[in-house]
Structures are given as structure tokens and as C-alpha cells.
Amino acid sequence: MENTDMNQTGDMAAVLFCFPHLQGSCPRTLRLYVTRVAMYAFMLTTILMTVCGNLLVIIAISHFKQLHSPTNFILRSLTVVDCCLGCFVMPFSMVRSVEGCWYLGKHFCKVHSSLDMMFCTTSILHLCLVSIDRYWAICHPLQYRTAVPIIKVIMCIGIIWLFAFVFGFGVVFSEVNAVGLEALILMSSCVGSCALFFNKEWSIIASLVAFFIPGAVMTFLYVKIFYVAQKHAKVISDRMATVSFHELKNQASEQRERKAAKTLAIVMGVFLFCWLPYFITTIIDPFINFMTPVGIFDALVWFAYFNSTCNPIIYAFFYPHFQNAFKIIIGKIFSLKITSVILLSL
Question: Which residues cross the membrane (predicted)?
């Protein structure tokens, strides 16, 4: 990323501004045309994959009654969050990342930052809720139906949405995150900027609430689930050596247990890969006097967004009942398109 600065002689001819006719405008980020096209192509592809993938899961769970379960209700709410992130946050972040300018005004900047924090927090808390649900289903299968009824799941989902809304909009609009940074913000502000600064206290608080606490819960539960799944697979394998009558059935059960363990390992790997670098940087940045380059932060934000792209692939595409639902939905879409083309040609 090449930022263009004014030379020391005061020559401003080489500098492009976000709002050339306004005094105090931010300078635009100058890039090669090929670089800008590549960035837009990558980000647009990510946005389309995020929206379409999550929308497909929403339709599948809503349309097919056999998918109506506590786990899938959580997944549907998670995909609604990720779809909203792809529709209402990522497109504006894309323009800001590529152009280096915010064209939609100060008030919408706050709304955008609030929605960004709200949807990301909601997504992470949903992932935590999925881990709790899977823990009860795999580690305590006999108590699962009584311990995790649908009404309790719906209440938990509502609490997550409400908490994330209050947290995201409350922090941004109250500006508690910027207490003590007024001089720095005033010095770095210009027309066309949209940056969210966190002081030392709130960089730690926000990271703990939005990532590290739910992440620690997820890690603990998935380690426990992984251990139980491996234990079940070993028991099944031992039984296969002595009981030949149920050999095929036991083999299928063993494969399911191993697949569940592998899926959980992928879940945690992708989650940590996408989110951990961003939150570590968020905590460290105030302590190093905000020396992290804007380009690095943008890259880390898009890594975090990418988790919302991966969620429907990990949680839905790995399971056969979802794959069958997707085939039916996509088949109907293509048949409708073919029918409409035929009718238009007549």
C-alpha cells in the first residue's frame, strides 16, 4: 500500500484528496490501477460468497422441517448475522479499504462502526453458543433434549442479539473507547476519515468481551468434545474386534465420531486464524502509541470478516442433510431460470 505524502516544499499537486473542494480533506490512498482492481475483485468475491453462502443456509433451515432443531436454529441466527455483515458492513469497508476515504459522513461512520462491532460480536457469541450446544449433544446425549429445549435456545439467541446491540452502539456512541485520546483524534482527524480508536482500558475490555472470553469457552468445550469423540471412537473400535455382528454399523459410527472430531478441529483453527491476529493487534496498538499501519489493520479486519464467509461452509456444507437441501434449492433455482428463459424466448 503506497500512501502519497506532500513533499517538504509544499507542493500539493501530486496529492489526491477525498474531497478536493473541502478544506481539511484527507488524502486518498494512491494505488496502481491493477492493485485496485485486484483488491475490489477479491473483496467483492468475499462479500458475494458471504451473502450467498449464508443465505443458502437460511433458506435451507427455514424451508425443510427436518432441519428444525436447536442446533440449526442457532446456525440460522448465525447465518443471519453473517449475511447482515456481508450486506450492511463489508461493502462500505471495501470502499474505505481500497480508496482510503470515507464518503458517507461522520454520523453514518458511527453507525457503520457500531454495526461492525455489533455483528462481529454477535457472530462470535453465536459460535460460542454452538460450542455449548455441541458439548451437551456429544458429552451428555441423554440429558440433551431436556437441557437444551428450543425455547431456551431462542431465549439465548435473543439475549445475544440484545447484548451485542447495546455493546456495539453503546461503546461507539458514548465514545468511552476514546476517553483520554481527544488530542490524538483531533490531530489525526480530517474530512473523509472513519477510524475507531480504543484507549488502553477499552482495548482490553472490548477484546475480552467480544473475543477472548467466548474464545476461551469455545476452546475448553471443543477440547472436551474432541476428547470424548476420540474416546467414543476408541470404544467402538475395541468392540469391533470382538463383535462381528454389528461390524458395519459400528464402523459407520466410528467414522461419524472421527468426522465430528476433525470438523471441530477445523472450526477452532479457522476461528483462531481469522480473529486472533486482529484482537491481539487491537490490544497492543494503544500501548505502542498507535503505530500499527492502517494497511495492516485493514488486512486484519478482512481476515476477521473471512470467518463469516467460512461459517456456512464449516457448519453446514460438511453435513449430508444440508448438502441434500442445497442440491434441491440450487436445482429449483436453475429450473426456474431455465423456465423463465424459455418463456421469454416464446
Answer: 37-61, 73-95, 115-138, 150-172, 204-229, 264-284, 296-318
